[in-house]
Please model this.
Amino acid sequence: MKSYFMKEAIVFKGPRVELIDSPIPTAELPHSLVIKVIVSGSNPKDWKFPEFSTEGLNQGDDIAGIVVSVGAGVLGFRTGDRVAALHQLETPGGSYAEFAVSWDYTTFHIPDEITFEEAATIPLACMTAAVGLYKQLSLPEPWQPTLKPLPILIYGGSSAVGAFAIKLARLSNMHPIITVAGSGSEYVNTLLDPAKGDVIIDYRYGKDAVLSGIKEAMHKAGVSKLMYAFDTVAVPGVQINIGKVLDPHGFLTSTGPINEEAIPTTVTAKGTSVDVVHSEISAESPEGLAGVVVSPQAFGHAIFQFVALALQRRMFTGHPWKVVPGGLNAIEGALKDLKAGKASAVKYVFRISETSTCAMTSFHYGGISSRGAKPREAA
Model:
């Protein structure tokens, strides 16, 4: 008997996760896609956001799976395509379910040689890194790389956002890359090019060691000014350190609030939010008043099309991952581990087919079973 419902994990404050039956979503809007979720990624925001709400929501935003339906205005995707996508934050249709919803401009094709597990590590963290580097700091994109030395400080290199920022910065030919990390330093070292002055500073040696390490790296690279900094971790004390090494007329972006007491007023400081790629230009905004018609959605589309190409040509890779056994049933425990700070240089991912069989529905959508395809093992 066919079922038109699916299993979905709702995240509450705690975190506490409840598995419910929900209607399978449809691609009613012109640029929407419905994707059978094979693997879902996870992010720290998945436990953080519910802390400020009394209601629960499917917090998953990293989708990797197979397209089962497309809206009337979708170009470039069709039923059966292997894709990864960034789900629009704080909206229905997230990736902690058998089926999820995305927009075509934040979806990309997964090359055949890339597993669903690797693809699921990419969407939110990679797009956040891209927004920080290219929209907020206005640095050269990978398809227009700089030809001159362009030093950048990336604080939190072992976080997923920080690691993707390093990867994108290298593709943009930015060097030297000075990054600060801790227990994930071994992985971060594999991302850097010491021959071009890239270096990692271990924050576990203390604040003074971090500051002296950054200054020493600048000196060795022949850099007199540090003009760009990306705070990818947004923890107390980070921006105090950044404020002591960044040029007074430099540029800073952070995934958290700007510490106005730590950063000189002459520094151009902006927050980075991935959800900007889902925004439109309002008539009253500075862009609208200036006559700009290309919305940030085009930025999201361009980044993910580049990511697909870079993955195919092996110029780019996902983040290290750990499959948490149990599918949707495992989300609560994994989010508790994220909250406890147990994940370093790794992303937790969930194979939806591993959800307890007594809970899963059995439904065929456009010839694709709700059980999904068996994902390939990660290398």
The longest strand covers residues 32-40. The mean pLDDT is 92. DSSP finds ten helices and 17 strands in the chain.
